[in-house]
Known about the structure:
Helices cover 55% and strands 5% of the residues. The protein is mainly α and 126 residues long. The protein folds into 2 domains: 1-76; 78-126.
Amino acid sequence: MKLALEEIRKKNILSPLLVLEILKENSKLKFGVLRNFLLQSLKTQQDSIKRSNKKLTEDYNNIANFKNEIGKMKTTARNFDQKNCAACNKELQLPTVHFMCTHTYHEFCVETEGIRRCTICVEKFS
Length: 126
């Protein structure tokens, strides 16, 4: 029974509550085996919650940083003084495309799929 419960927990086949519901019919089952299963299941859930909360905090911080950056973009001038294309690293020649993230490209170096996007920033934030 102990091995079966361990496999159920590792593979997350059944919820702990459903396992309790199924095993309540078995009067010969020792509580120690079930106790270890439940404790491990709770630990796994707590670890998952911690990871989710950490990711949530990171996402909130990223959102705050983006809001600050957007505020700066709306209120301050940007200086586009790059000498080289962000894609091919060759000297810039007209026509060029300037993005608010301050990356600059040759017009032919920017991939167009209907909307022009900075390829560096798209990769970084996706």
